[in-house]
Write a structure and sequence with these properties.
- The complex is a heterodimer of chains A (488) and B (507).
- Chain A is mainly α.
- Chain A contains 19 helices and two strands.
- A two-stranded antiparallel ribbon of chain A has the order 1-2.
- Chain A is globular, with a radius of gyration of 22 Å.
- In chain B, helix 1 runs antiparallel to helix 4, helix 10 packs across helix 14 and helix 14 packs across helix 18.
- In chain B, strand 1 and strand 2 form a beta hairpin.
- The relative contact order of chain B is 0.10.
- By secondary structure, chain B is mainly α.
- Chain B has a two-stranded antiparallel sheet. Chain B has a two-stranded antiparallel sheet with strand order 3-4.
- The chains are: A mainly alpha (488), B mainly alpha (507).
- Chains A and B meet through helix 17 and helix 18 of A and strand 1, helix 5, helix 6, helix 7 and strand 3 of B.
């Protein structure tokens, strides 16, 4: 038993580092409690911890998939890559929070603590190998998210968003638990490894019933990744939450939810039985509707945060297309997508954050004539927006190309055409923002205070991967070092 | 010689980087850098022309470039040139060089303007050189970015709308095409050469079917139409032409020239390089539809042109009409028709470029383009007495556009008519009406602008200066020389066109 535990701890080192980091951050937070103290040290500590975590994750990459803690979690290349994206996303959001005025200065360290906590939940989700760890992951992720949303205590939209998030989240988590209990009731186990063979044996009415339970299960998951029809919370929460939190939400919980969706779909529905056909059909519809609803709703938005929220719904729809195909290339396409999306989102939110700090609003009007005031920033934002719209030679195009390509390989042409039309809609609203930045005259010519030298360097540095990943992406799709992605 | 295509493709980018490196405020240095860069590029395209072997029907083996890019998808950075892309390459080299000269007077944000123009030139070369479908698509799309900014920032009053419309329309066409490209990749068996355009040639997809929303479609037919959409929007063929007048009217002079001179040709080039050789059976089957759409473009474009009071819009619609002839020539699918189509692509490039440049010259003096103002008064009048040099060049350009014998437009249109007559006799007759309308709207516009009493405003206009004459002369020479002696262009395309016609004649 000791051996198993030892091995498990070894495999689970990245998460354990995060837990230790969170405890240390709590202490550090207490030491920097006074109003007006500089909290850079706390952030440096968090950065150090996250870098160590990322390093450990990278070391784990090549290893063969293996289960730990009596199969409660599984460590495989797929989960590790998803965790890596989440860690990088947290790191980015953290430094955004450090410079943003949207997070009150006395809450800055708290943000670090909670972000790392949420990250732990997300990492647990990406590794979950039984129903219990899965639920635990979802709850850790959610409860801290609720608090983070309403971090801007005195702002009514922020508290309202937190409330909405909590209510909606509580409801769907309940529904999900209900579904899980049915699955347990029918199959007699919470371990994925034990359930999977039993699923194949089910016949007739049992299959229908199990499908219904999985639908309930999907409700909880769909809510986390804001898939249609569980996406309604997302624009309000994105708009209400402080910008660093929004950037964080766009990456970490989404990728965690995607990880679960991918793992569950691959484990339970990999075959070609009636259940798989039903699940794939469901995902087809969900993918198509999610991207269409997201992109179409984004058109009329004036608040950039809200626009990015709807656009992220559109991107989730695209990512779900990679799940529909239920094969390894599809998963790799999603991982690439997540990676590309990470950098694009960070840059977009960073620039929005600086403008929001200066003008107190994130309306598109604050972007007006940015090219005449901060040409480099406007060019970076344009690159990122073009990339989000899927224009070559940026990473967003390669991401879209990969997803379209796996879908077409499976001959789901209908879905491919829907995705193609969606990217036209997407281009329209991204272009409107670019138009505002580049074509319109600026109302004032004063430089924006927030674009300090260090911020500008950082934004350029974050944009470089957006371009590079669009040109030199050979091998990026096979990042797992040749190892199998999943533990089957 | 093997790296020549690389040199041509990347020299504008080098120029662009040089321009970006020049500190702000050095306007003349920026202009000269752009001019030198495009001059070098143009010289390189002439070197390419000099070393071109006219007897080889396919890609010139001396100039092939092939390097692995994304090995996992078998995507190559592969470039090549044949008789269909060479005329377009020459045109691209020449027009950008002249456009830089014509842009000497641009004041607003000069650095960005020239940098974007050079970027545009490189991407257009990329489109004509690519032998890898993925590479082609990347260039095809990237090209939209400089165009979007060039129209949107340096354009006229309504430039934002025009830029957005242009971008969205083209993007729509190309993204649908992307689905087709990926489908072709899997259909060729995702092997070593599966993104290679040449490997897709030859009608390999005639028997395949696809299943969409519960219905079976023929692979060849479905993806012929997705590709058709992408290229038809670019040409533009009726009814996909509505973006063109806006884009043309709002774009600055140089961008209009490039748009009409080179970018529209990318659509018809797409048909010749992709649609026809990859889906020959469907192309032959639907050639009547292509021909009819071409005919509608000819007549509808001409009628629209006749109704315009804005001279630039008039020329924009005349482009729709002239590109319709190209479509008809291609639809004939015989030697004369195809040769005529490719020649018309080149000749329209020179003559329309002339017209747009001339309008630009006038606009710099008048700051309006009304033949008849909305309030009914004449916008110009008696230009002939006021600006004789301008008028002579205008006459040459106009007659070339009209297809007057002895000038370039005549040869290509005559070839097209020779080609389509055996196949679509009725349509030939109807297309002749289009030709007549073409003469009508141009001459009518000429009468209203150049004859009659000299307006008070017009009295203040200077005639063309040396710089303006300098960039018009090469085009005048092209128009006159290729009108009398078209063989330098016809000979280079002959073998390649012949190969394509042979392939199509089997279906």
């Amino acid at each position: 038993m000791i051996d198993i535990l030892k091995l498990s701890v070894q495999l689970y080192a990245p998460e354990l580092v995060c837990v230790v980091l969170m405890c240390l951050l709590l202490v550090a937070e207490a030491m920097h409690h006074e109003e007006g103290t500089d909290r850079t040290k706390v952030y440096l500590l968090a950065t150090l911890g996250l870098v160590v975590t990322a390093g450990l994750l990278i070391m784990n990459l090549g290893a063969a998939p293996s289960a730990a803690f009596y199969k409660a979690v599984v460590i495989d290349s797929f989960g590790t890559l998803m965790k890596l994206i989440m860690v990088l996303g947290t790191l980015g959001a953290l430094w955004l929070a450090h410079s943003s005025k949207d997070i009150y200065s006395n809450l800055k360290s708290e943000f670090a603590v909670m972000a790392v906590g949420t990250l732990i939940g997300g990492m647990l989700l990406a590794s979950a190998n039984n129903m219990l760890t899965l639920y635990l992951g979802i709850e850790i992720l959610s409860i801290l998210s609720y608090v983070m949303t309403s971090l801007k205590r005195e702002d009514s939209t922020s508290t309202e968003a937190g409330m909405k998030y909590a209510l909606y989240g509580g409801l769907t988590a309940g529904v999900m638990l209900f579904g899980m209990s049915h699955i347990y009731g029918m199959l007699g186990s919470i371990q994925f490894a034990e359930i999977v063979p039993k699923v194949a044996e089910l016949q007739g009415a049992d299959q229908v019933f199990l499908m219904a339970s999985f639908l309930l299960f999907f409700a909880g998951l769909g809510y986390k990744i804001s898939a249609f029809p569980f996406h309604m919370w997302s624009p309000d929460v994105y708009q209400g939450a402080p910008i660093p939190v929004t950037a964080f939400f766009a990456i970490v919980p989404k990728m965690a939810g995607m990880a679960v969706l991918i793992r569950v779909s691959h484990l339970f529905f990999a075959g070609d039985g009636a259940l798989s056909v039903a699940w794939v059909g469901l995902l087809h519809v969900v993918a198509a509707l999610t991207m269409t609803v997201g992109n179409v709703s984004a058109i009329g938005q004036d608040s950039v945060k809200r626009l990015l929220a709807f656009s992220s719904i559109g991107h989730v729809g695209m990512m779900i297309m990679g799940v529909v195909v239920l094969n390894e290339v599809g998963t790799r396409a999603i991982i690439y997508y997540g990676m590309a999306y990470l950098f694009m989102t960070l840059v977009a939110f960073w620039i929005t954050s600086v403008l929001n700090d200066t003008y107190g609003t994130d309306s598109q009007a604050v972007f007006r004539g940015l090219i005449y005031r901060h040409p480099v920033m406007a060019i970076m934002m344009s690159i990122v927006l073009f990339s989000l719209a899927g224009m070559p030679p940026f990473s967003g195009f390669v991401a879209k190309f990969n997803i379209l390509s796996v879908v077409i390989e499976k001959k789901y042409y209908g879905l491919a055409f829907i995705a193609a039309l969606n990217s036209v809609v997407g281009l329209y609203y991204y272009m409107k923002l670019i138009k505002e930045m580049v074509f319109s005259k600026a109302e004032s010519t004063e430089p924006v205070v927030g674009f300090t030298d260090s911020t500008r360097v950082l934004i350029v540095a974050l944009t470089i991967p957006v371009v590079m990943m669009g040109i030199f992406w050979d091998g990026l799709m096979g990042l797992s070092g040749g190892a199998k992605l999943f533990l089957q | 010689m093997s790296g020549l295509l690389n040199w041509i493709l990347w020299s504008p980018i080098v120029g662009m980087i040089a321009i970006l490196a020049i500190p702000k405020g050095n306007d003349n240095a920026t202009r000269w850098t752009a001019l030198v860069s495009t001059a070098i590029t143009f010289a390189l395209t002439l070197v390419l022309y000099a070393n071109f072997d006219q007897s080889i029907p396919g890609m010139q083996p001396d100039f092939l470039v092939k390097m692995p890019w994304i090995e996992q998808f078998h995507i190559f950075y592969s470039l090549g040139i044949d008789g269909i892309s060479l005329p377009m390459t020459l045109l691209n080299g020449l027009l950008f060089f002249l456009c830089i000269m014509s842009s000497w007077t641009v004041e607003k944000n000069l650095k960005g303007y020239f940098a974007l123009l050079l970027m545009l030139q490189s991407t257009v070369f990329g489109v004509f050189f690519s032998l890898d479908f993925f590479l082609f698509y990347v260039y095809w799309e990237v090209m939209l970015i400089p165009m979007f900014f060039l129209i949107g920032v340096w354009g006229g009053e309504n430039r934002e709308y025009a830029a957005v419309k242009f971008f969205l329309y083209t993007f729509f066409g190309s993204i649908v095409m992307l689905v087709g490209i990926i489908a072709l990749y899997y259909a060729t068996g995702k092997g070593v050469d599966s993104f290679s355009i040449l490997a897709m040639h030859g009608g390999k997809f005639t028997d395949m079917t696809v299943h969409i929303f519960g219905t079976d479609f023929s692979f060849e037919h479905l993806f012929f139409w997705t590709m058709f959409l992408g290229f038809a929007i670019k040409v533009p063929v009726f009814p996909f032409h509505t973006w063109l007048p806006h884009a043309h009217v709002q774009a600055p002079t140089a961008v209009s020239v490039i748009l009409a001179g080179v970018l529209l040709k990318m659509g018809t080039y797409g048909f010749l390089r992709f649609s026809f050789p990859i889906f020959p059976a469907a192309s032959v089957e639907y050639s009547t539809i292509i021909g009819v759409l071409g005919l509608i473009s000819v007549i509808y474009g001409a009628l629209c042109a006749m109704a315009q009071d804005d001279i630039k819009k008039l020329i924009a619609y005349s482009s729709v009409s002239h590109m319709g002839f190209v479509m008809m020539g291609m639809a004939a699918m015989n030697t004369q028709g195809m040769n005529g189509a490719v020649l018309q692509m080149f000749n329209h490039g020179t003559s329309t470029a002339m017209m747009f440049l001339l309008i630009g010259v006038l606009y710099e003096r008048s700051h309006h383009r009304w033949i008849v103002r909305p309030d009914g008064t004449k916008g110009f009048g008696g230009l002939y007495t006021q600006m004789p040099k301008y008028s002579i060049i205008f006459i040459i350009g106009m007659f070339a556009s009209m297809g007057l014998p002895g000038l370039s437009g005549f040869i290509s249109e005559a070839l097209i008519f020779l080609g389509i007559y055996p196949k679509f006799t009725t349509m030939t007759v109807l297309a002749l009406i289009g030709l007549l309308l073409g003469a009508a709207y141009l001459l009518w516009a000429f009468k209203r602008m150049f004859f009659g009493d000299v307006n008070d405003e017009v009295k203040e206009y200077d005639d063309m200066n040396l710089r303006e004459v300098a960039y018009m002369v090469p085009l005048c020479i092209c128009v006159v020389v290729f009108g009398i002696f078209p063989s330098p262009i016809l000979n280079i395309m002959k073998a390649s066109v012949g190969q394509l016609v042979d392939l199509l004649s089997k279906y």
